[in-house]
Specification:
Chain lengths: 384, 449
């Protein structure tokens, strides 16, 4: 009974994180019909970013401050800001010469507009990181600065998702799907190996500072301690999922997302800005993965190097969750994540711990054989 | 009045010329392999012999993956798993076979399998026969695995094959890694163990240590010759045409009566066989310890990079890219030869740069040229990087994967068909297309008079 309850709690806590990562896979697949292999690396990036921010904010062991000496981030942001200003001036001057009487609008400066967006976004993320430090200095118990670190990681990874989509995937919008898939693998390799550089995170494993108390359980049921990290992690994940579900099914923007996923060409004929919808989809997916990265780091504080097989496997399992639930279906991804978590943890606890990855991938093969469109997915009819 | 039957007998070509025509490339291959083993190896020295050995293994892997990813247009990203299966089967047969036959697992091969100079040995021994047999056995087991994996997943369309092959690779790796028993060292231990337990005695996560080094330039390049020959013949056969039709349009080829699932599985099984053979060669290479961690998906990605860079569907392209991708890290680790080539590279890049600028200024088609220039510039950048890194005392090999990843992304954006596209190096149309990119474009709107 004790073992059962403990396994159930772990499975639900990790399964909800799988669901968060799976959402990113499933949203991108729903709209662009390709597997974003780089998504699991964005998850890893989220974990490492939150580690750097947490250490910089003063949590954890000050001796292990791998977060120091990342000034290049600020330099990049300054460069983007200045470049945006210069390009905006030129673009505006060129536009003004052609339209001497029109009023100014940001839409007139497209490249500069993107750069301004990127720079402002980066400064906002940096500001969140600074705020986390200030809050820690005030003597916070971990909840509030945890929230700030989470937001900072989400903002950073959202920015990375935006830039990746613009630079790597947008030029291939009309290319065959195989090319996009290969590009995604390339992006994934790039992120993994950039992360290993000494100027980024290095190859040494690190330990994520735990912001929540690890010795004070919230409640004890039949000798099983329910830890705050499990409850808060799962609650954050569920809250984010509800937010996303509301966004997709109840708002105007969500309607345009569903329209693009249904048929991009027709959606653009109906006046939906397809490129913008795709960008926002990437941003949302990446920031959800970053949230999962932070929460996972809180539950399992050991951070491996970015190319470690463990990390990549986590992302792959989340992908399996998306397929099992029915890829392209948002509620299916949530269901699949929890199912994969349950399968993995109960298999590991009751059958054999070494084979935990085998269960997940065997389930994938079984699902593909029996019901290729997933549990909640609708079978697709191919038209010529 | 001749019947259809007698007509077909008349039209059948004579046996002897057909036999000669079909066998001579293989004989040439054997000749090249022998020449490499007995004449080239003493000249180029141990280090380059080892590099050549690695290149050969990579070529087999890349060309076999070309059959699935290039010919058939499917996307398998678990090729290293078949390599791992073949390697472990072949390694197990050779190791335990020689333990039982000769009482020790030392190298018992002849001069044909030797990578060490000046070793007194007969030309061919029973050890060589065991090794060659084990390679085929490893390939066959890998092919069976390919059938088992391919049959369910190839029924599905799209990216699912990619996921399933990836999952399969992970399953194989985890299964081998989770074995906890050590490799057996003596004949008595082997005899005491039940036969059905033998597959578990492969060393687990620590790797299969103690495999004899049978892989020589002869065996590897014999494998290369056979693989290239099979791939090239396959491409022009009825089966190969079916593969290509699936790549071009799956629905159309199904409408023409091609059983797409069956042909996809066929391509998959052939590719798995050669990957298994390459795994056997890899397992017995000098300086290699067979290890499940080493053959994970990063190895699969390496093979994919070779295939994609070479051009999806080009056999010679895959082989050339395999050679480049294998040599590059060695060059980066020891940039001396690259530094010597520096003036040549710089000159080439300068010429291409001027040509591209002239093309762009005169409004000529320069897209393909720009892509080729990117490749040259990459090489140039490597040269610069190697100089800078050597001066600063860094090992540029650490940045290898970053460069490959960038090359992969840029390639997909600028020249998605890879270096050679679906054509071979000796196709005139390939070079004509490149030459055309220097000439003026056809005038727009002037064609329909």
């Amino acid at each position: 009974m004790e073992k059962f309850l403990q396994t159930l709690i772990d499975a639900l806590a990790v399964g909800s994180l799988y669901a968060l990562i799976a959402l990113g896979y499933t949203m991108v697949y729903g709209i662009l019909k390709f597997i974003n292999f780089a998504h699991s690396d964005v998850f890893v990036l989220g974990a490492w970013t939150s580690f750097l921010v947490a250490v910089a904010a003063g949590w954890g062991d000050p001796q292990a401050s791998a977060g120091a000496g990342r000034e290049w981030v600020a330099w990049v942001l300054w460069a983007a800001t200045i470049a945006a200003a210069v390009i905006a001036a030129f673009e505006y001057a060129a536009w003004k010469r052609r339209h001497p009487t029109d009023a100014f609008s940001l839409n007139r400066t497209r490249l500069a507009g993107s750069l301004v967006l990127v720079a402002a976004w980066g400064w906002a993320a940096l500001g969140l990181a600074k705020m986390a430090g200030v809050v820690k200095a005030w003597g916070d118990n971990g909840l509030f600065s945890g929230l700030l670190i989470l937001l900072c990681a989400m903002a950073t990874c959202g920015l990375v998702g935006f830039v990746l989509e613009r630079l790597a995937y947008k030029p291939l919008r009309k290319a065959p799907r195989l090319n996009v898939l290969i590009t995604a693998i390339g992006v994934s390799l790039l992120l993994q190996n950039l992360g290993q550089l000494q100027a980024m995170f290095g190859t040494r494993p690190q330990r994520m500072p735990t912001l929540l108390p690890t010795d004070a359980p919230l409640a004890t049921i039949a000798n099983v301690k329910i830890m705050p990290v499990d409850v808060i992690g799962a609650a954050t994940a569920v809250a984010l999922m509800f937010l996303l579900d509301f966004l997709v099914h109840r708002t105007k923007f969500g309607r345009s997302m569903r329209a693009v996923s249904f048929n991009p060409t027709t959606a653009s004929l109906m006046g939906i800005p397809v490129d913008r919808v795709i960008s926002v989809t990437f941003v949302i997916g990446a920031s959800l993965a970053a949230a999962a990265g932070f929460l996972y780091g809180q539950k399992y504080p050991g951070l491996n190097q970015t190319a470690a097989a463990v990390w990549v496997l986590l992302g792959l399992k989340a992908f399996v969750a998306a397929v099992v639930g029915g890829i392209g279906n948002i509620r299916g991804a949530m269901l699949g994540g929890v199912l994969i978590g349950l399968l993995e943890f109960f298999g590991a606890a009751y059958v054999s711990a070494a084979m935990r990855d085998v269960y997940v991938f065997s389930l994938l093969i079984v699902v593909l054989l029996v019901r290729p469109s997933g549990i909640l997915g609708r079978p697709m009819v191919e038209k010529v | 009045m001749s019947t259809l039957r007698s007509r077909s007998v008349e039209m059948t070509p004579a046996a002897l010329p057909t036999l000669v025509r079909s066998v001579w490339p293989l004989l040439v291959g054997v000749g090249v392999a022998l020449a490499l083993q007995f004449f080239a190896k003493p000249v180029i020295g141990d280090f380059y012999a080892k590099v050549l050995l690695d290149i050969g293994t990579s070529i087999i892997l890349a060309v076999s993956l070309t059959m699935v990813n290039g010919f058939t247009g499917q996307f398998s990203i678990g090729h290293a798993a078949f390599m791992m299966v073949g390697g472990y089967v072949s390694g197990g047969i050779v190791y335990y076979g020689s333990l039982l036959a000769w009482g020790s697992a030392d190298m018992a091969g002849g001069a044909l399998s030797s990578m060490i100079d000046g070793r007194e040995a007969p030309f061919l021994t029973w050890g060589d026969a065991l090794f060659a047999g084990s390679l085929v056995a490893g390939g066959l087991v890998a092919a069976v695995c390919g059938y088992v994996v391919g049959l369910p997943s190839l029924r599905l369309k799209g990216d699912y094959l990619a996921i399933v092959t990836l999952g399969f690779g992970e399953i194989v790796r985890v299964l081998i890694q989770s074995q906890t028993s050590d490799v057996l060292y003596t004949v008595e231990e082997v005899k005491e163990t039940a036969w059905y337990l033998m597959p578990t005695k492969v060393g687990g996560a620590l790797g299969f240590s103690g495999l004899p080094f049978y892989s020589s330039l002869f065996w590897v390049f014999l494998g290369v010759a056979v693989t290239l020959l099979v791939a090239y013949r396959l491409k022009d056969s009825a089966t190969g045409r079916a593969f290509l039709s699936i790549r071009e349009d799956e629905i159309a080829s199904e409408a023409m009566g091609v059983n797409t699932t069956q042909f996809k599985v066929r391509a998959f099984v052939i590719a798995a066989f050669f990957a298994g053979v390459a795994g056997g060669l890899f397992a017995h290479s000098i300086g290699v310890q067979l290890n499940p961690g080493e053959l994970g998906f990063l190895k699969s990605f390496d093979i994919i990079i070779m295939v994609v860079l070479g051009g999806l569907g080009s056999i010679s392209g895959a082989a050339i890219a395999a050679a480049i991708v294998t040599i590059l890290p060695e060059l980066l680790r020891n940039p001396e030869p690259l530094l010597k080539m520096w003036p040549v590279l710089a000159g080439l890049a300068a010429v291409l740069l001027v040509a591209a600028v002239v093309c762009a200024m005169t409004g000529r088609r320069a897209r393909s040229l720009v892509a080729w220039m990117c490749i040259v510039l990459t090489l140039l950048g490597l040269g610069f990087g190697a100089r800078a890194a050597a001066a600063a005392g860094h090992n540029l090999g650490d940045y290898r994967m970053i460069l490959f990843a960038l090359a992969l992304i840029l390639m997909m954006i600028l020249r998605p068909q890879g270096l050679f596209g679906v054509r071979e190096v000796w196709d005139r149309s390939l070079w004509k297309g490149i030459a055309d990119s220097f000439r003026a474009p056809p005038k727009k709107g002037g064609t329909n008079k």
